[in-house]
Amino acid sequence: MGETVYLSLGSNLGDREENLNRAIIRITELMGISLLAESSIYNSTPIRCPEGTPDFLNKVIKIDCSIKPVQLLDSTERIEKALGRTKKGVFSDRVIDIDILLFGDRIFSNERLEIPHPRMFERAFVLIPLCEIDPDLTDPQTMSSFCSMRKRLGDQGVTLFREKAGA
Questions:
Q1: With contact defined as beta carbons under 8 Å apart, do 64 and 40 qualify?
Q2: Are 56 and 42 in contact (CB under 8 A)?
Q3: How far apart (Å, rounded) are the C-alpha atoms in residues 24 and 11?
Q4: Looking at the chain, which runs of residues are DSSP E strands?
Q5: Which residues partner with 57 through β-bridges?
Q6: Which end of the chain, N or C, is less packed with Cβ atoms under 10 Å?
Q7: Topology of the domain comprising 3-162
Q8: Which run of H or E residues covers position 131?
Q9: What is the pairing mode between strands 41-44 and 158-162?
Q10: What residues are annotated to the active site?
């Protein structure tokens, strides 16, 4: 048994829903990873992106992970590239974006990775699906409830796109 990890997935190019599904399949094919839960899919208007940027589809998955954080980052970056992501950077179009939000109770930072994800606290498109799958989850740094943070943010243009299967 590994650590509980939360990943955020987003796509705003091509078949956005299929991009999310393909990413989840690839993630769960990784050695040492098993899927524990996944949120519904949410539509979000782009934040701080150039005018005309298409809406994103977003979801959060919860996995059991027995590899190290940087190994997971390397693997998710390979998945992004394999699925057609050509550039890395904030506030741009992307076929797929996979962010490590939380990795157990770890607080970790190096030149490539910061856990908890430093901008997750200001993003309703992350906190809404995160709270859907784990409403009692707290920030390991402040011990504050993510759902209370989400309520303070409001919806920020995030709407339900498709409920998760079996919901």
A1: no
A2: no
A3: 12
A4: 3-11, 33-38, 41-44, 56-65, 97-103, 108-109, 114-115, 158-162
A5: 11, 43
A6: N
A7: Alpha-Beta Plaits (3.30.70)
A8: helix 124-133
A9: antiparallel
A10: 85, 94, 97, 99
3-class secondary structure, 151: helix
- Looking at the DSSP assignment, which residues form a beta bridge with residue 62? 6, 37
Q: pLDDT tens digits for the chain (167 residues)?
A: 899 999 999 999 999 999 999 999 999 999 999 999 999 999 998 877 777 889 999 999 999 999 999 999 999 999 999 998 876 666 678 899 999 999 999 999 999 999 999 999 999 999 999 999 999 999 999 999 999 999 999 999 999 999 987 66
* Residue ranges covered by each domain of the chain: 3-162
Determine the 3-state secondary structure of 153 from DSSP. helix
Radius of gyration (C-alpha) of the chain in whole angstroms: 15
Q: Which residue has the tokens 């993630």?
A: 27
